[in-house]
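Researcher: For the record, we're logging two predictions in this thread. I'll number them. Prediction 1 follows.
Model: Prediction 1, sequence and structure:
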Amino acid sequence: MMTAVQGELMRAQYGPAAYESIEGGLPAQYPRTIGPNAMKYLQEVVDGGFSRSNTMVDRFERRFAEELGVQHCIATPGCNPALQMLAAALDFEPGDEIIVSPITDYGSILGIVHENYIPVFPDTEPGTVNFSARTIEPHITNRTRAILCVHKTGILCDMDPINELARRHGLVVYEDACQAAFGRYKGRLAGTLADAAAFSFDSEKTMGGDVGGCLVTDDAQLAARCRFIGQSRGAVREASFGRRHIEPGYAFRMPFCTAAICLAQLEIIREQVAQRDRMIRLMSRLIGEIPGVTPLPIPDFMEVYSAWIFGMNIDLEQFTCTADEFARQLLAEGVPNAGTGRYYLMPVACTFLNENAARNVYPYSTPPASRRYRYDESTCPTAWSFLQSWIRWATFCEKYTEQDCHRAQEIVARVANRNRR
């Protein structure tokens, strides 16, 4: 059902537009801190007149690959294009299945849907925002081709068991690291834990530029195919003819100015992530001391928590209010953008999936699908139950200090005590 005002859709807001009305006593994401060399790099773009001799995109790709320790970085206009480019490059058949973390954003599945693959959502582990090898395994079928792991809020999936499971079944594994830039898992950085990974550099993200994203991989063949499909529009050059499009493709190329800003942001990101890690661990400990309130657990395997969202659950049996009311009171007390996050559950938020599956709309027709699909809260009961009492505020940022963390504890404690049974 579409919600409308005077006959017009109430469109969802993204980026700065989604944050423009946020007020509160805790640090806000905007205005963003910009790397000191940003103007220098932007001036180089202007002085170069957008000529091919301006290598800003190439420079950013090389530097980001070096920072991650990977062989290939392909810069894109955003994270959604990066994931869509990869979905197209994987070249699976319509009706093939890709297993995806159920608590995520539509951008994670956009490419899957548009390439006519079928998303499959296992449940999450109790008390967390992520799935695991244990919850994934029952959903592997003879049509499964890949697993997309989303590091939601910056909490990394436990990748070693997932990769081992994928190896046993011959599956591709890739990461949506859009909320986890420079998080560290067992000595390895987010984005280097699977066959490929996508990052976001949109203005609100951890390494925020104006927009932007990229795909990284160590697979030279996959990187070449991504550039061909995702940036060369599936076209080859032919003598005495010109471009011949031998496959449908895209033009997902990062603009020069975006590359300049991202290059400047890359120079300050390590220090910012270290600050996020210190402050999110402190705030999680402090708020965890409040009876009836449980912050997202930080796994032992996660050495650096590149937090983008702070999340917590409340024990509804201990309070007289709902999670929504608790969040509204946090907002009134100065917590920016406090709210619940039920819309993160893709089987419920993406209503078109269930509608298409019920009506056998391609690719849910048989063929290419080989079975019937259903998408609603009953398919991920653990995740759905978790989200009923989950509250998050967006976004957590490097501006937090120890004083801010103690102030957050005071606010949450005040609201908790006001509503305690």
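Researcher: Logged. Prediction 2.
Model: Prediction 2, sequence and structure:
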Amino acid sequence: MHQPETPEIPQEVDRVVVCAYGLYIPTRLLERSLWLNVHPSLLPRWRGAAPVERAILAGDEQTGVTIHETVEALDAGPIATKEAFEVGDLDAGQVFARSAEVAARLLNDVIDSPAFEPQSEEGAIYADKITAADRELNLDDPVDAWRRVRALSPHIGARASWTASA
């Protein structure tokens, strides 16, 4: 995976595919080629930096993958295709792996001639970056603790502290 601080296209290309690219793509580049973004959520739900983690934390029963046109607004471009799958007891690493499998197939289906439908603003939720506070387990709430462990496993991790009583 290559993620330059400033994206450049060295030559004229018809398509550019991005995935998990968290930096601004200049308008001049978006205008030169069709940019397709592979996003691991069912847009418009969970636009932004941590869609997999936020879906698990929220207790979403389903998540999925959306292939959409990259536009200036974050994860707001028209949608070429998307596919849902069950979250169940999967952790974030397993959801990312499943998303990669789905994304490869979906991208293969649409890359040559994508047909886009506008993305609704209804149901749009932003998936904020994970913070230190998001990593804290509330051991008094086992459902939340279980979701938090799964959402942050294996790449970020969660933590708790307690004091033993005498």
